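The methods section describes the discrete structure representation at length, but only in general terms. Each protein is reduced to its one-letter sequence and a matching series of backbone shape codes. I believe one specimen quoted in the main text would settle the matter. An entry of this sort, consisting of the sequence and the corresponding backbone structure tokens, reads as follows.
***
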Amino acid sequence: MIVLGIDPGLAMPGWGVVYKGQTDKLSCLAYGCMKTYPKDSLADRLKFIFTETQKIVDTYKPEVVAMEDIFFLKGSKVIATIGQARGALISAVVTKDLPLFEYNPRTIKMALTGYGLADKYQMQHMVKTMLGLKEIPKPDDAADALAMAICHINTNRFVVK
């Protein structure tokens, strides 16, 4: 199974591709970020996110996509821009006929660490360990995206197909 994890955002959405074969061993195929620039118009930034996401899908051919569900405590302007970026990301995925699963932060933390209030360092360390990487993936958005892919695999590993 190949899973594309996406950490939604407008400035630098993260992405990570994880492979799980017949064994429980996970492999990181690739990861990165789609950096957009505030000087560009919102429309251009959203178009860039859409087209880059489709390129990633075309390159790595994931079977499923896992994305962080939106959550906020405050900041309506931030909510609006991330919501728009999520729309571009979701559109890019569904137009490729890929199933999309959304996970809240607590579920992601539970799936990786067994503790729903794990901090960022604990999460990054588990991503590194579970994927057998030499160092923690950078930037943080890419590590978060890999965590989402791992979350989907761990959450669905007992589902009979």
